């Protein structure tokens, strides 16, 4: 199969299977023919709003069929989709917009700046808008995802993969003309990647508004799902269902359960291997930057318990010690990765600078080691970033919001173990004013942070949390509370 521009991939599948379902969401479905025509109309509207070749378009839409209509419309103009959360407070969204500088914002009625046009949630192209095919245009980058940094400031990770695809190419065991379930938020890299690549292969993609354990099992049975995207938090919520509830659904169609985005407890992974079989369970470790990826099947994991797998053919991995030397097998150090094609070939940042050591090796901030067979084992994170429910939360960002509240002198945000989420955000807040209360602080944070970043627990203290140099030792604060079983 020849490589196809993403501006024409819908047309390709609409010609092959026009009446087959492309996407399902709640009780709504759309076939390939209709998806192609509606995105053609939207593309013309976007073009009227100034979108052209290689422009960014910010898509602040919730999980919906409309999210995909917008995304494919952007590709049809040779532009690059830049998904962001639909639930972001305006202040946080505007920080991202100021970095990305998109040509158009989709999903909001209040314009971030006078110079950037916007279209609201639920916008539809006028019925008279032509729905015929547009000329082929191919963006230099097929996605631009948003991430925080160690400072809590947003950055955009722009893929250097052009907006083309070979529908016959092997991609993470995806089935051509299959059935994919993605119960995660599409503005995150993992769910976005899994959903759109399944569509590229002509598969039906089922999405949900939010994750629900019972609904997930029911959807696998209803749509004969062969591949599902999960994070360990989802897996644990399914496992916590009563055994009779979990086992009453027919999951025989499921060929691959992918889990990624956060560490998976060994006991949970073992239970899933026993339940669904070792050949169904697959794990992936990597980052949005695409500098390196490891993969491991359940069968391999049983032979290399605790590993996140071996590097794929397109990258290499090494472990580096504190003095910069490459460490031998079984010695713990920082994990560094590099694409075989060379540094800088997989992504570029907007709003940040890449940090690399000699030879272009880069790190995601993890500690780990390689065994004699080249399998990677992770231990801990060098950074203070908190992984909660598969989402990355940067303490500095939450602390900045807390410290904007009157009466707060300083704060420290850490992650504490949580049975469901993996880690829960815990805030230690130094409040001088005794009249300040937790409810008022939470109300304030609700205006500044998206919900999943708001601390689940708050600890009020009356002593400074930073030393004379302005540093806060989050790791020592966390270790102390773990010892106290807070």
Q: Work out the helicity level.
A: 25-40%
Low-confidence stretches: none
Major sheet attributes? 9 strands, mixed
Query: What number is the mean pLDDT?
Result: 92
Annotated CATH architecture of the largest domain: 3-Layer(aba) Sandwich
Short description:
This protein is an alpha/beta fold and 486 residues long. The chain is built from 13 helices and 28 strands. Helix 1 (9-16) runs antiparallel to helix 2, helix 2 (32-48) crosses helix 3 (65-76) and helix 6 (213-222) crosses helix 7 (232-239).
How would you describe what is shown here?
There is one protein chain. The chain has 3 domains: 4-276, ANL, N-terminal domain (Rossmann fold, 3-Layer(aba) Sandwich), CATH 3.40.50.12780; 281-381, Roll (Luciferase, domain 3); 386-483, ANL, C-terminal domain (GMP Synthetase, Chain A, domain 3). Helix content is 26%, strand content 27%. The chain contains 13 helices and 28 strands. The protein has a 9-stranded mixed sheet with strand order 3-2-12-11-13-14-15-16-17, with helices on both faces. Strands 18, 19, 21, 22 and 23 form a 5-stranded antiparallel sheet that branches. Strands 5-4-6-7 form a 4-stranded parallel sheet, covered by helices on one side. The model has no long low-confidence stretch (mean pLDDT 92).
């Amino acid at each position: 199969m020849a490589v196809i521009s993403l501006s024409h991939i819908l047309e390709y599948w609409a010609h092959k299977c026009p009446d087959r379902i492309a996407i399902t969401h709640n009780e709504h479905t759309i076939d390939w023919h209709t998806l192609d025509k509606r995105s053609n109309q939207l593309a013309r509207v976007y073009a009227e709003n100034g979108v052209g070749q290689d422009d960014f378009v910010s898509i602040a839409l919730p999980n919906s069929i409309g999210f995909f209509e917008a995304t494919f419309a952007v590709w049809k103009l040779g532009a690059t989709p830049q998904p962001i959360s639909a639930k972001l407070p305006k202040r946080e969204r505007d920080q991202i917009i100021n970095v990305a500088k998109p040509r158009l914002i989709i999903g909001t009625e209040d314009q971030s700046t006078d110079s950037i046009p916007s279209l609201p949630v639920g916008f539809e192209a006028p019925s008279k808008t032509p729905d015929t095919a547009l000329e082929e245009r191919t963006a230099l980058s097929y996605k631009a995802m948003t991430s925080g940094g160690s400072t809590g400031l947003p950055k955009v990770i722009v893929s250097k993969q052009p907006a083309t695809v070979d529908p016959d190419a092997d991609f993470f065991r995806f089935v051509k003309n299959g059935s994919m379930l993605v119960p995660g938020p599409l503005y995150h890299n993992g769910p976005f990647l899994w959903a759109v690549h399944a569509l590229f292969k002509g598969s039906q993609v089922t999405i949900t508004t939010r994750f629900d354990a019972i609904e997930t099992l029911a959807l696998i049975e209803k749509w004969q799902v062969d591949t599902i995207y999960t994070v360990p938090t989802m897996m644990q919520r399914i496992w916590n269902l009563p055994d009779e509830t979990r086992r009453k659904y027919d999951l025989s169609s499921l060929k691959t359960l992918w889990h990624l985005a956060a560490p998976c407890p060994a006991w949970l992974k073992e239970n899933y291997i026993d339940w669904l079989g070792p050949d169904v369970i697959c794990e992936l470790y990597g980052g949005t930057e695409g500098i390196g990826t490891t993969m491991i099947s359940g069968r391999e994991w049983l032979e290399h318990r605790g590993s996140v797998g071996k590097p794929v053919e397109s990258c290499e991995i090494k472990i580096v010690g504190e003095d910069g030397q490459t460490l031998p097998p079984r010695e713990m150090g920082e994990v560094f990765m590099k694409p075989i094609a060379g540094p800088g070939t997989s992504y570029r940042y907007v709003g940040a600078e890449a940090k690399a050591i000699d030879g272009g090796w880069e790190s995601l901030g993890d500690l780990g080691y390689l065994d004699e067979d080249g399998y990677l084992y992770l231990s801990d994170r060098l950074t203070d970033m908190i992984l909660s429910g598969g989402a990355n939360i940067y303490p500095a960002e939450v602390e900045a919001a807390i410290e904007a509240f009157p009466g707060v002198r300083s704060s420290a945000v850490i992650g504490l173990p949580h049975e469901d989420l993996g880690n829960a955000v815990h805030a230690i807040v130094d409040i001088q004013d005794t009249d300040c209360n937790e409810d008022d602080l939470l109300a304030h944070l609700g205006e500044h942070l998206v919900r999943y970043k708001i601390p689940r627990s708050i600890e009020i203290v009356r002593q400074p949390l930073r030393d004379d140099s302005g540093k806060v030792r989050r790791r020592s604060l966390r270790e102390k509370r773990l010892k106290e079983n807070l």
